[in-house]
Amino acid sequence: MGKRKQQVSHDEDLYGQAAGAIGGLVISFGILAAIKDKLGLSWPVTVLVTAGSLVFLGYLAWRIRSAARRWWGREPGGAKTAATALQQEAPAAAAGPAEAALEAAVAHPQLTSALVTAGAIGRDQVIKADEVTIEQVKTGTVYDFLVPPGRTYADVERRLGQVAGVFGVTRLHLTLARSRDSERRARLLVLDEPPFTKPFPAPSRREIEAFEGIPFGHDVTGQLTGVPTFEKASLLVGGMTQMGKTTLINGIITCLLIAYGEFDLYLLDGKFCGLTRYAKIATRYEASDQPVVFESMVNELNDLSERRYSKMQEAIKNRQPAPKFRPVFFIVDEAADFFANDGSNEGKEDTRRIAESTRGLVAKCLESGISTVLLTQRPAQNAIPVMVRDQFLYRMCMYVASEGTAKVALGDTYFETVAPINPALLNPDIKGQGVLFANGRSTLLRGFNFKDEFVWDVVDEVQDRQQKAVETAPPSPLKQAIDLMRDKGVEFMPTPDLAPALGITESDPAEAGKKLNKLLGVPSYRAAKGVRGYRLADLTTAAMSDS
Ligand SMILES: Nc1ncnc2c1ncn2[C@@H]1O[C@H](COP(=O)(O)OP(=O)(O)OP(=O)(O)O)[C@@H](O)[C@H]1O
């Protein structure tokens, strides 16, 4: 129905237009005939003259119209309309070539383009040239700049890998430091060569003392870098064999001895001669790869921790200030073997028990001033149980073959942290390099490789200090026991020998043991074959501290 209606109106239109066209043709023909008649021209000339005249008249009308428009455009209302029209045309036209040129003049072309391409700043943003300083340093180039308002230093940090790509270097070539004056300021170092291509000399004693915290090594610029404190912190170090873990931990122990003053060392040398240089100043030094030895040290420290917790509870109950404990470092070189088992049910149970007490040690002991440092050359999924790994506040990974292995040392979510550094990309030929992940930040560093003489001097000095502390201690049963053992030249004395020497006449061995324990205030030690007695190192440690 509707369609038929449309058809009817369409037919009527056609009729009307045809009639109009015929009428127009007749009139045009009539006008041309009149002109021809009036001027006495032939038909072709009449048509040409008429067409030419009409075109000329059209041109004249266009000129008059344009002139009239220009004249009206100077009027106030007209100006307003023109400005509005310009504004409405396009914002790009408003920013216009002139303004774009101005922006280009103030933008730092290289940094702007690098950061835009890396996605650290928006495409419409610039790094202003007058807010950039470029400094050539020994190891590379430092770009100090302000990111645009609305952006922060962290936007660059998050895209550091991409920034490295734009600069045509690797992530390992870049370090980014924030500033204290503004969240917008960033200091980007681009190294000339891969990190640590040239070695840095080991630091002097004075440099170590001046460092705020414990230095672990040099950063890529040669500055000392490490952790602000080891209080309430433990460290896990992973890395493939021969990458420099033992050298690194020797460097850290040496720096601790210089920077920390007094503390007790419990060393478990799973590689038998990695930590030997510190044996004579250690409270307990064992060279063993036997899980039972590891377990006995862990248990000893857990006992110490419990005693310290009791003292803390006591102080709180009596409204006394919290007791200050002498720091203890438990350092284990090559820890993975201690969590291995033969697959038997008994073996698995041993591993579970050892893992549980190690987890407790690392977790609980922080409050009681006992820090654990575990090193492993097998950072495999099952080498150090997850429940133990998760407790470490500081983590380090030296060269490993894959990103997956790096996650074992640094944490499963490490690569989602801010500006991670992939240890699998380190050059395995430059020994001692590692990624330190502490307080949410990653730092690439190279451990110190101290000369033997330097370490011996530091160790001798600590030993002298320890001896003097005991010698000057006021007379006490403890001091008497130490003097006795030193005179006899023994490191361990069984309870039945020591008790009478200290005036205990009790004939019942158990009672004599209890009395001696009370007198010395130091827990006894069960030596080989279950013989109970006291170690000189424990007595010396007790004489130097109130632990
Ligand atoms: N920071 C360093 N500077 C120079 N050389 C180093 C550095 N760290 C380690 N090395 C050298 O690398 C080699 C391996 O070092 P180290 O024994 O410390 O490695 P490791 O990882 O403990 O090895 P493994 O796990 O096989 O026992 C040694 O020859 C050592 O001198």
From TrEMBL:
<keyword id="KW-0547">Nucleotide-binding</keyword>
<dbReference type="Pfam" id="PF01580">
    <property type="entry name" value="FtsK_SpoIIIE"/>
</dbReference>
<feature type="binding site">
    <location>
        <begin position="239"/>
        <end position="246"/>
    </location>
    <ligand>
        <name>ATP</name>
    </ligand>
</feature>
<feature type="transmembrane region" description="Helical">
    <location>
        <begin position="14"/>
        <end position="35"/>
    </location>
</feature>
<feature type="transmembrane region" description="Helical">
    <location>
        <begin position="41"/>
        <end position="62"/>
    </location>
</feature>
<keyword id="KW-0812">Transmembrane</keyword>
<keyword id="KW-0067">ATP-binding</keyword>
<feature type="domain" description="FtsK">
    <location>
        <begin position="217"/>
        <end position="407"/>
    </location>
</feature>
<protein>
    <recommendedName>
        <fullName>FtsK domain-containing protein</fullName>
    </recommendedName>
</protein>
<keyword id="KW-1133">Transmembrane helix</keyword>
<dbReference type="InterPro" id="IPR027417">
    <property type="entry name" value="P-loop_NTPase"/>
</dbReference>
<keyword id="KW-0472">Membrane</keyword>
<dbReference type="InterPro" id="IPR002543">
    <property type="entry name" value="FtsK_dom"/>
</dbReference>
